Amino acid sequence: SAAAASAARSSGGGAGSGGADGAGSDGGAGGRAPATSTFWFLLHALCCLVSLFLGFRFSRLLFFLLFSTTALYSSTSSSSSSAVLRATTTTTTTTTTTTTTTNTFTLSFQANPNPPPSNLSNHTALDAAGAAGHTQSHVVVGRHGIRIRPWPHPDPVEVMRAHRIMERVQEEQRRWYGVKEPRHVLVVTPTYSRAFQALHLTGLLHSLRNVPYPLTWIVVEAGGTTNATASLLARSDLTIVHIPFPDRMPHDWADRHATENRMRLHALRVIRERKMDGVIVFADDSNVHSLELFDEVQKVQWMGAVSVGILAHTGTADQPRLSEEDKQNMPLPVQGPACNSSGHLAGWHTFNSLPFAGKTATVVGEAAPVLPRGLEWAGFVLNSRILWKEAEGKPDWVKDLDAVGENGEEIENPLILLNDPSSVEPLGNCGKKILLWWLRVEARADSKFPQGWVIEPPLDIVVPAKRTPWPETTAELSAELVDSKQDQEGRRLSRTD
Amino acid sequence: MRRWVLAIAILAAAACFFLGAQAQEVRQGHQTERISGSAGDVLEDDPVGRLKVYVYDLPSKYNKKLLKKDPRCLNHMFAAEIFMHRFLLSSAVRTFNPEEADWFYTPVYTTCDLTPSGLPLPFKSPRMMRSAIELIATNWPYWNRSEGADHFFVTPHDFGACFHYQEEKAIGRGILPLLQRATLVQTFGQKNHVCLKDGSITIPPYAPPQKMQAHLIPPDTPRSIFVYFRGLFYDTSNDPEGGYYARGARASVWENFKNNPLFDISTDHPPTYYEDMQRSVFCLCPLGWAPWSPRLVEAVVFGCIPVIIADDIVLPFADAIPWEEIGVFVAEEDVPKLDSILTSIPTDVILRKQRLLANPSMKQAMLFPQPAQAGDAFHQILNGLARKLPHGENVFLKPGERALNWTAGPVGDLKPW
Amino acid sequence: MGTAAVAAAERPKQRRSSHLWKKALLHFSLCFVMGFFTGFAPSSSSSWRAGSGGGGGVQPRHQLATSHVAVNQQVSLVPDAAAAEAAGVGNGAVVDVGDDEGGEGARRMLIVVTTTRGERRRRRGELLRLAHTLRLVRPPVVWVVVEPAADAAATAEVLRGTGVMYRHLAFRPEENFTTADAEAHAQRNAALAHVEKHRLSGVVHFADAAGVYDAHFFDEIRQIEAFGTWPVATMSAGEKKVVVEGPLCSDSKVVGWFSRDFNDGTTRAVTYNTEADLNPAGAAGTRAHTIDVSGFAFNSSILWDPERWGRPTSLPDTSQDSIKFVQEVVLEDRTKLKGIPSDCSQIMVWQYTMPMQVHAQTSTPKTHNRR
């Protein structure tokens, strides 16, 4: 390798100086002829060597192709021939790198042919005849050094490369095991501007961005579209349909529930109007989803149901408070389809609100637990064609969307669209698998929060630091604040500077 | 004159291109062949009808009683000797007529002698083996006919029939003289090593199939670990200085890659060990005291590309399993470059290895399931034995001819068992 | 004259060169053929081959490895040198090689630590939501999840479905914790012990599973050289309370701290005394009490290489309470503290408290970690 590399290197050098030389002799410098001819002779010899080497390589390759018969050997030849190729390219390209490269490269191979001095070598000599065509063992028995490389690591470039490999591997896994021809996913989300909106909507947005299928996110906003919501949504690269809903979100929890239902219905009408094709998933911004849900919904024919884990919480005061231990031991309440032993829909698990009994229809946050009522929309999945006026193979047990909710009655859940609710397809291992969680946490409706979550300067009270402003007790701090405020009146800082 | 240079360049480029095209062609050809067919066409051979095995009926002190004394023998990585016996007893290749047998099997559990902590001690094994051979040689005529050349023995200990766990001692001892002519079925495999004689069959170590089955996770679980390894880096109790154990390779793995987030390596054995292998791209299979370890089996079964770090290793069923195609081989001295080596493998090559590993026949060949299944390791052993048939002329001795020296070997080994 | 002479000289030269051409090509092909036949010679020439190139077909078993090494050497040389250089300055912790491959240069690693406790039932959902966010963060990211060993099996199943590169640490405490805070504190130390043992190098942040992060947040904290801090919004479920706490910044420099409740309109804030800042004695006097773990990130090398950060080696045993140590260092070394984003006005982290917990542990946000 060293020889070949140096040959290639000097041929590379020759290329440069040859050009210069050519220009010189063109000018008629006859006196330099002997030097030039020596040079040409050398170059010629080197090129001959290169040819020799190439010929040799070529024949080895042929040798392997022709004379290896078993599968193992031909497979070996494939890797060895590629190795040959790589070795050749290396020797030519190393001309641009340093000499050390070549040295290390050579060293790593020179270790092989010399059987190391050990008691093993006696045996290798004995057995060598038997292992025809194989190398001699170069493994030394005894103590070895622990090789620790001197250069630092990990090499960031390699780290990135490894991550790309893993990305490709995961992509390939999805290709092998995933849904072959995925359907479009239409996600319907009612939302409105409030303290927890940024938190919830950002969470949902991140989940949706991970969905590996084509997806359109239909966001219905109560009280009209706002810039705050729009700018939140704009941060994703999802296809988003942001629809205003004229009514404002009421404060009363029961009314709020009804309004959200009407918002969903509004979204469904839009889907029907635009004849959007796909699987409709009802995702509230406060839901947490498992990505498996989006795999499961690909299976739905007309209407499917999934199990929703209910993570309700109790209100602030006067509630039948559960001790920490009770909470831990209580099984997670689940809402969703119940199957019989033969795997058919037999009924529904609904959320039992008894442990949370009390005022359920009050203003959010005023001593009331936020609880689901009946069956949540989030537990249902629809084929959007079920909404279309005309669709191929649309079953006759489906009502027309226009016939639903006309008189302003509340639509509790999508089951109302069906004449025969037993046709619902239970998904997620027949409802045994919880694919999303209902994790409704809201602040009191009248909570104030910074617009766009940007803190506006200036802040009023600014005193020199003795400590961070959130020490153990408030009383201590306020005293300190007052004191230092008087002392340091003149040293106020505004955040604008 | 510039044309000269140009011509050379063209010549060189053409040669490179030509060679490259050749290499590429070979590669392409294999890809289709391997993927459309099966990885090892030989793996699907059915040994039934191709050989007949006679199982000697030995007193239970050579096998069943040992197991009764210590049932832990059923679970350690040397358990192949027990399961092979059980398998042969009910196998279709078994014959009760020794006259028509192609192969003779002596059911002797030489590694079923465990320390309280569960490690097998091979100190009594030579005497036990000798005792068993003496028994069959006196009670049946078939041993003396060939002096064992048509007999096979399962010797799954670290260094096979050398019966010692320290390599230097094992080499010093060499293969038990009485087994010089027999075919050895063993886990140990290293080229040109005294403890691996020609014609031996290298088998995978025993890994509990039911337990592995129970830990299977869906194949679409994203592989989010780049390199995975759990096990010792230093064997401080046996090798306080370091450098003997794994010839320093494992220590080198730790020292070079403990701080690399891509390398999920540790000495802790978590309960999710099998699951974690299934979500790794590469699984390190470095040598330990011997070149082989159960990780080879685990990696193949769990579809994790084995990174084999053991110079000159002879892999299980290497004539049937395309180890070159499914694994990555890293020389022990190249361990410090492991990250560069692994990250520079083209992604297509990695994906292809994974596709091959997904082939069920490859996984099957690594396991000793109960009951046996077509294509499993038992069948591969039989296939290996069948491929050695018919027996050559030198197998059977002329009347009166003797090849074995019954008094060779350390004095301690000659004592009765 | 000049032109004529040149023209005359040109012609014979051409003839001569075409002659040379033929001769040279003949030689080359002869050599090629010679080489070709040498290749067929028995493998006694193996030693020469081994010394001369890729090892040919001598060692099939090592082909793959060796060939890769060969390829690699060219690749690794350059970054190695750069890395070595960087190591001289920054001990390899902060190696920014720049855009090496397709504009995807090396990014600093993020080490996101999540401790789990409290309501087991919420955990699955919360971890999934955080995992979805982390999945969107460009690599390299390592997610360290610590939790009591008893709960680990169920969580392992959740984690492995996410596709995030994670380390799952089962935590077996020696003591029983009286408060959730004490447990979280011990878990964080367990995570840092892992980071320290493995010398993982990157930006460490403690992310609460119940928190929600803006996706850009992680790109921001990746810029941290030493320490970084930012405002955090904490909301209370079922109450009228939105509190933002965080640093007061001026041009990425932290000049103080504030805490503002948007509903009762109160703001508490302090700024550093700049004169005291310049005076070491004064600086020592202004030692702050604590900093909320949800509000800062730090370069992990402080854990195992404090000297590099200009800190004495004879520190109190950091292995015992690393998190406390880091919290103190962050507040003391505020010149190295970077405000995020540059004017610290944009909130990118939201967390909430549940009323249940509010009652159980006074009225402090649950992620607060006090001495």
The average pLDDT value of chain C, as a whole number, equals 69
- Into how many domains do the coordinates of chain B divide? 2
First and last CA, distance of chain B: 85 Å
Q: Classify the beta-strand content of chain C into a percent band.
A: 15-25%
**Unreliable sequence segments of chain C:** 1-11, 42-104, 275-288, 357-371
The major beta sheet of chain B can be summarized as: 6 strands, parallel
Run of helices and strands of chain B:
HEHHEEHHEHEEHEHEHEHEHEHHHHH
Number of DSSP-assigned strands of chain C:
14
CATH top level assignment of the domain at 108-224 and 286-338 in chain C: Alpha Beta
Question: Can you tell me about this structure?
Answer:
The complex is a heterotrimer of chains A (497), B (417) and C (371). Chain A has 497 residues and is an alpha/beta fold. Chain A has 13 helices and 13 strands. Chain A has a seven-stranded mixed β-sheet with strand order 3-2-1-4-10-6-11, sandwiched between helices. Chain A has a five-stranded mixed β-sheet with strand order 5-12-7-8-9. In chain A, strand 8 and strand 9 form a beta hairpin. In chain A, helix 2 (33-67) packs antiparallel against helix 3. Chain B folds into two domains: 39-206 and 376-391, no CATH class; 209-366, 3-Layer(aba) Sandwich (Rossmann fold). In chain B, the strands form two sheets. Chain B has a six-stranded parallel β-sheet. A five-stranded parallel β-sheet of chain B has the order 8-7-9-10-11. In chain B, strand 7 (225-230), helix 8 (249-257) and strand 8 (263-266) form a beta-alpha-beta unit. The longest helix of chain B has 35 residues, at 2-36. With 371 residues, chain C is α/β, with parallel strands linked by helices. Chain C has a domain at 108-224 and 286-338: Spore Coat Polysaccharide Biosynthesis Protein SpsA, Chain A. Chain C has helices at residues 2-40, 46-52, 63-90, 120-136, 152-160, 180-197, 215-221, 274-278, 280-285, 301-304, 322-332, 355-360; strands at 110-115, 141-148, 166-171, 203-206, 212-213, 227-229, 232-236, 242-250, 253-261, 267-271, 296-299, 337-339, 349-353, 361-363. In chain C, the strands form two sheets. Chain C has a seven-stranded mixed β-sheet, sandwiched between helices. A six-stranded mixed β-sheet of chain C has the order 5-13-7-8-9-10. The longest helix of chain C is centred in the N-terminal third of the chain and has 39 residues, at 2-40. Chain C is elongated and about 100 Å long. Chain C starts with a helix and ends in an 8-residue tail after the last strand. The model of chain C is unreliable at 1-11, 42-104, 275-288 and 357-371 (pLDDT under 50). The chains are: A alpha/beta (497), B alpha/beta (417), C alpha/beta (371). At the A-C interface, helix 1, helix 2, helix 3, helix 4 and helix 6 of A face helix 1, helix 2, helix 3, helix 4 and strand 5 of C. Strand 13 of chain A pairs parallel with strand 10 (267-271) of chain C. Chain B: Belongs to the glycosyltransferase 47 family. Chain B: Residues 50-345 form the Exostosin GT47 domain. Chain B: One of its GO terms (cellular component) is Golgi membrane. Chain B: Its main location: Golgi.
